[in-house]
Amino acid sequence: MRRCSGEQGPELRAGLDVNVSPLLLLGSMNWAAEWWNPRMCSLADLVKAAQDFVRYGMGHPALFAG
């Protein structure tokens, strides 16, 4: 997985399959349109949950504090 020139960020974990992982992530986000129900949570809450999942996976955000 290449980064744009000058882009900085945390390194990916060792052993991460960089070919499959983006497909899993995009697939799960595409299906959100099928199962999301505005009575369950707001669109803003859904977007926040997706952002947190991209940033932190299933780990607690405190584990990623720098």
Question: Could you walk me through the main structural features you see in this protein, from its secondary elements to its overall organization?
Answer:
- The protein is mainly alpha-helical.
- It has a domain at about 20-65.
- It contains two helices and no strands.
- The longest helix is centred in the middle third of the chain and has 16 residues, at about 20-35.
What's this, in brief?
The protein is mainly α and 66 residues long. The protein is 45% helix and 0% strand.
What fraction of residues sit in β-strands? under 5%
**Largest beta-sheet details:** none
Number of helices: 2
Low-pLDDT runs:
none
Helix content: 40-55%
Q: Average pLDDT, to the nearest integer?
A: 81
Total DSSP E strands: 0
CA radius of gyration = 14 Å
What structural class is derived from the secondary structure elements?
mainly alpha
First CA to last CA: what distance?
23 Å
| Strand and helix order | HH
Task: Choose one word for the global shape.
Answer: flat
